[in-house]
Amino acid sequence: MSKSKFVDFRAVKAAITMEQVLEHYGLLSKFKRSGDSLSGPCPIHKGNNPTQFRVSTSKNVWNCFSECKHGGNTLDFIARMDDVSILAAANKAIEWFQLDPEAMSGDSEAEGREPSEAPKAGDVPRPKPAAKPASVQENGTPNKPLQFRLDKLERTHPYLTERGLTPETIVDFGVGFCAKGMMANLIAIPIHNVEGKVVAYAGRWPGEPAEDNPKYKLPPGFRKSLELFNLDRACKESPDKPLVIVERFFGAMKLHQHGYRKVVALMGSTLSAAQEELIRRHTDSNSQVIVMLDEDEAGHAGREDIAVRLSQFVFVKVHAFEKEGMQPEHLSAEEVQQLIGGVL
Fold first, then answer.
1. How many CB atoms lie within 10 A of CB 18?
2. pTM summary value
3. How many domains in the chain?
4. CATH code at position 23
5. What is the CATH number of the domain that holds 166?
6. Which residues touch 247 (CB under 8 Å, ≥6 apart)?
7. Domain that holds residue 321
């Protein structure tokens, strides 16, 4: 039986850039460049907000944070601009950029290729999910669940009250002052994996530490890049609710305390590949994510990268605080409800 001729979408995407595509549509000059990012009004829904549409030239992807509520790659952009199928978009790209048709095609047994006849014009099939990494492991095995618990923690330490935590929240998250052991003189914060098992304790100095001393301490061998703080609770919430991503433990605990429990913390301002995969596994194409990092230089850089990466498989909204230095834990219960309620 003869094999059908297929179009290799990956080969087409690898052969063209978003800058080339924007230039083809006469749009490139209308975008403002900042590093590897291009921003401007969305050409798909004909918007006028100069920051609603962004392109990462290094990752070759785009995202509309406004009416489209979508992002994708070069072929996704062509398909939406011309209201055609992904196959038709690939064939247009081959013609426009004079790509070698033979190099852009293959046979039906080749992975990542689509038949040249099946989809109808006007149908925009969802791109196939990106191949999952062999494991969420990075540089070794997963974090192993601990065989012990820090049970004798002081739950009434004044630092916890200073951070605005209620007794209920303190007990719920199992935090407290540790008087001895590896977390001696620190606020111990248990970190659970997605199955709800404690894999580590993070230590927070109660107050401002001495010069050159870090605020946080993590146990040797623990890889925070493999975990999302509070994911075990967040994944049990309704799939209709947006997933809120913050940087810090206390930001997640405060939002939880204010009644919004579908929140995770990165334990930093960057998103690892393993954390991205965890989010992918616990969301779908209809999910919404709100990126709410601290309003500082690290937060600005982190939220841009996170938005571009996650927008390839979920709708992403970036929240920017009005004042420099603001953090999620500074929000009141009323502000949290207004903010989250605005996207439901």
1. 20
2. 0.63
3. 3
4. 3.90.580.10
5. 3.90.980.10
6. 265, 266, 267, 268, 269, 293, 294, 299, 302, 327, 328
7. 231-341
pLDDT for residue 53 is more than 80: yes
Determine contact, residues 22/31, Cβ cutoff 8 Å.
yes
Q: Does the structure show a pLDDT above 90 at 128?
A: no
Angle at 137 between CA 136 and CA 141, to 5 degrees: 140
3-class SS at 242? coil
Structure tokens at 204: 């927070």
Q: Which helix (H) or strand (E) holds 220?
A: none
Grouping H, G, I as helix, E, B as strand and the rest as coil, residue 106 is strand
Residue type at 29? S
Burial grade of 343 (CB within 10 A; 0-12, 13-18, 19 or more): middle
Q: Which residues touch 84 (CB under 8 Å, ≥6 apart)?
A: 78, 92, 121, 122, 124
- pLDDT range class, residue 341, cuts 50, 70, 90: low
With a CB cutoff of 8 Å and minimum separation 6, the contacts of 98 are none
